[in-house]
C-alpha cells in the first residue's frame, strides 16, 4: 500500500500543476485522502463479510473458506488500519499547513447567506444601486445589446403601425 505522502513524492502519477507549491501539494493530498476513505469503507465492508459464517455467503461473493478466510480477514484489517493511519496523518498535515500558513479564518468560513461574488473582469463605474454593483463589462454589454434590440423592435413596430394608418387614410380618400 502506498501512503499519501509516498504518492505525493512520486512525480510520475501527479499532474505537474499539483507540484507547483506546498499548498497545491496539500490540496492534492486531501484529494488522495478522499480516495483512501473510499478504500477504507470498502475494506470495512469486506472485513465484515469475512466475519460472517461461510454458510451465509452468497454464491457470487467469492469469499475464501476455512483458514484462508481468517488469513484474508487479517490482511484486510491490517490494510484498514494502515489506511486509517495514513488518512489521519494526511489530515493532520493539512491542518498543520493551514495553521502554519496563517490562513485567515474568513478564507475558510462559508460566506454569509445571499452572498454574490463579484463578477470577473473589467466593470463599468457603478451608480451605487445594489443590483448593478456586481456586474462586469460583459454583463453590461449584454444588457446594452438587449436594450438596443428592444428599441429596434419597437421602432419597427411603430413604423409598421404608422404605415398601416397611412394606408388606411389613403384608402379613405379614394
Describe the structure.
- This is Mediator of RNA polymerase II transcription subunit 11.
- The chain has helices at 4-9, 22-51, 67-101, 105-108, 137-173.
- It is mainly alpha-helical and 174 residues long.
- Among the domains are: 16-55 and 66-103, Helix Hairpins (Orthogonal Bundle); 135-173.
- The chain starts with a helix and ends with a helix.
Which segments are poorly predicted (pLDDT under 50) over 5 or more consecutive residues? 1-11
The CATH topology of the domain at 16-55 and 66-103 turns out to be Helix Hairpins
Assign an overall shape: elongated
* Terminus-to-terminus distance: 98 Å
Concise synopsis of the structure shown:
GO terms for molecular function: transcription coregulator activity. The chain has 174 residues and is mainly α.
Amino acid at each position: 500500500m502506498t501512503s499519501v505522502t509516498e504518492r505525493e513524492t512520486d512525480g510520475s502519477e501527479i499532474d505537474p500543476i499539483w507540484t507547483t507549491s506546498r499548498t497545491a501539494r496539500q490540496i492534492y493530498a486531501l484529494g488522495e485522502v478522499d480516495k483512501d476513505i473510499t478504500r477504507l469503507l470498502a475494506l470495512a465492508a469486506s472485513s465484515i463479510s469475512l466475519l460472517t459464517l461461510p454458510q451465509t455467503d452468497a454464491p457470487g461473493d467469492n469469499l475464501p473458506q476455512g483458514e484462508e478466510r481468517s488469513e484474508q480477514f487479517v490482511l484486510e484489517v491490517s490494510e484498514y488500519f494502515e489506511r486509517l493511519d495514513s488518512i489521519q496523518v494526511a489530515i493532520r498535515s493539512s491542518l498543520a499547513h493551514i495553521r502554519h500558513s496563517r490562513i485567515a479564518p474568513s478564507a475558510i468560513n462559508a460566506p454569509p447567506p445571499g452572498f454574490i461574488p463579484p463578477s470577473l473582469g473589467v466593470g463599468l463605474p457603478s451608480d451605487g444601486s445594489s443590483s448593478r454593483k456586481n456586474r462586469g463589462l460583459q454583463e453590461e454589454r449584454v444588457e446594452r445589446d438587449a436594450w438596443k434590440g428592444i428599441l429596434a423592435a419597437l421602432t419597427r413596430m411603430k413604423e409598421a403601425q404608422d404605415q398601416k394608418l397611412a394606408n388606411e387614410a389613403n384608402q379613405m380618400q379614394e
